[in-house]
Model the fold of this input.
Amino acid sequence: GPPPVPSAPGAPMDIKIHDANRDYVIVSWKPPNTTTEGPIIGYFVDKCEVGTENWTQCNDHPIKICKYPVSGLFEGHSYYFRVRAVNSRGISKPSRMSDPIAALDPTEFERLHAKKLGGKLDVVSYHDEEEAEGKPAGAPSGVYASETDRTYVVLSWKAPAYFGKAPMWYYIEKAMANTEAWQRVNTKVPIRSPRYAVFDLAEGKQYKFRVLSANMYGTSEPSEPTGLIETLELK
Done:
């Protein structure tokens, strides 16, 4: 459709959702196909919980690449996403909204899919679950940066083997190169997926990260820290 503001960009296209997890998805899209307006400064990503009409903007500042990790979703809730393009004249109409996506652990997707197909699921537990109750979880392992940008890094890691029934979540800590001044990154929202985007990093700086798991009984030892990860710099 025509842009709402003369000379504002057209709407972004082909919005897709990747890597859906318990509280986290990555949204990607393609730029508008019209190029007559001024250059695009960046994009805003919006989300809306299925069953409501409330669209909320996910990022405070326009992002320049056509990909954005959205965290802080509620497990088990379903969401639509859409994207708007920004140039110096204004903001485009929103893209078409994505298909709905549920924030679920990927193994839960498989279980639900099997259930839907009438598949028979045999659950075998090789561990005595009672033993795990009352103890903190073990430390996560294998922390690495699956994506690095100018102001954010997407971290992924391996969850500890965990057989307790108490919910488990993660804390992430960062430190600058050559220091041991570890700073907790996520203080407001508990992370339940083994992946998280750490924002508000400085361009062209070196950081290291580590992850701890936690449950109602306590917090694990920290994982081994990553090697030094350098954010990109606009040349």
